[in-house]
Amino acid sequence: MKNIEYIIAIFLVLNIACTGKKSETKRQKQPNIIFIMSDDHAFQAISAYDSTLIKTPNIDRIANEGIRFDNAYVTNSICSPSRAVVLTGKHSHLNGVRDNIDVFDGNQNTFPKMLRRAGYETAIVGKWHLKSEPTGFDYWNVLPDQGHYYNPDFRTPNGIVQEKGYVTDIITDKALAWLENKRDKNKPFMLMYHHKALHREWLPALRHLADYKSDLIKEPQSLFDDYKGRGKAARDAEMQIGEHMGLSNDNKIAPGLVDKLGFEQFMGWYEGAYRNNLARMTKEERATWEKVYGPINRNFQENTPNGKALIRWKYQRYMQDYLACVNSVDENIGRVLEYLDEKGLVDNTIVVYTSDQGFYLGEHGWFDKRFMYEESFRTPLLIRWPHKIKNRMVNTDLVQNLDFAETFLDVAGVEIPGDMQGRSLSPLFEGNNENWRDALYYHYWEYPGIHAVKRHYGIRTDRYKLIHFYYDIDEWELYDLEKDPEEMNNVFNDITYESTKQLLLKRLSELRTQYQESDSLNQAFFKADLERLKNNK
């Protein structure tokens, strides 16, 4: 009898040990995920892509120790819709956020909810910009709307809290505090670490205010684009550096001086934004600000440029502040990477760096985003996952932010829902692109709206891009990206591209069907948007 009891006891001990080992093995196989997303970070301003404008050693480290995607794109180049696509793995017309006015329905399924159900500890810190309260997170601490650069407010489950300091630093402080002190360390984690920078009005950290101020930033070849090779949409857009960038809020010229010199349309809005940003500063912070921008203001008054010289001046001022903001983002990503090194979390942690879309850094004379042209359509994407992704890999397949949710679920061993519309990127980590997509679909919806970029949808293949502008116009554009990478010459009516055009029109129709979009659906949205505009007047 004792022998039987002894054998049973040994069996139970071994069974418990094996079960525990299996559980631990499963947990270790589920990688941690740090999903870093900045706002409006152009791939042109990351030295892993192009070192002409700036050096970004910490962001570059992710590329050097992982994979760089050279053909990563978004489905809708604007803040809120991009974030909704990332969460749901669905195009804007299905997730309900087509523009920055729509409110995200937090009841729908998202990848953080699914990871949480699969045993992950989940958190989001920084920019949210979806109006509704975050759901699917064990912890959240986010900016209201766009947030502020200096001494910003944060939304928490307990209300609004104002923090002292610079927003990029504070977001990182909060992310590191959660990693170190607030999460359950017996679980794998998924942290969405999202920056407000580099959103307009490009206010650098005080320590970086003087960065690039004495530099001459290289101008893009198309800074003085006349839009002759394109249609009405490009000509009508209100995002030209010369005409639509504010001297006060954007270029930091004091409103009184702007008014005195006879500049500035929409002075009330620009002046209000300028004063509101500076009002958040302490007396000491304002003094530091004045040491840098005071001389710039005086020089502008004494040597006031006009015509092309003014555009060149505004471009330099824009880029000096934009790149100075990049420096803070890069520094803080370095802090997170160092934390992973120190805590021994590198090997089993996926680190993703991306932006919610691309951005114009003077190309075509523009700032902002929205268009399906490359600079705003394309986004940076760098991923590090030691032992799974080799160092310095470069991928040229067509990928989208539509694929992020599916990728995170796949690497965590969670079944991807059939109604998600993207694909897991994980096969590409090993160089397997068999049966990968041959085309991307894009749809921008926010018109009428700020910057006046007309509604349009389109398709991009490895060589061609076809765009349809609609709503108040009906114009098509076709670009041969191999011969015309800057998209200066619309060849839609060029007879030599007729067969290519017909193939693209057919493929575009197929993609719209695949993604459950139609003209009748668009018409329904038209009516709803018109009613919304009417009610908001």
Describe this structure in words.
The protein has 537 residues and is an alpha/beta fold. It folds into three domains: 34-203 and 325-428, Alkaline Phosphatase, subunit A; 228-318, no CATH class; 444-536, Arylsulfatase, C-terminal domain (2-Layer Sandwich). It is built from 17 helices and 16 strands. The chain has helices at 2-29, 57-64, 79-88, 92-95, 111-117, 167-182, 232-236, 241-244, 255-260, 267-279, 283-302, 308-342, 374-377, 404-411, 426-429, 498-514, 519-536; strands at 32-38, 67-69, 72-73, 121-126, 139-142, 153-156, 159-162, 189-194, 349-355, 381-384, 393-395, 399-400, 440-444, 456-460, 464-469, 475-480. Strands 5-4-8-1-9-10-2-11 form an eight-stranded mixed β-sheet, with helices on both faces. A four-stranded antiparallel β-sheet has the order 13-14-15-16, with helices on one face. Strand 15 (464-469) and strand 16 (475-480) form a beta hairpin. Helix 6 (167-182) runs parallel beside helix 12.
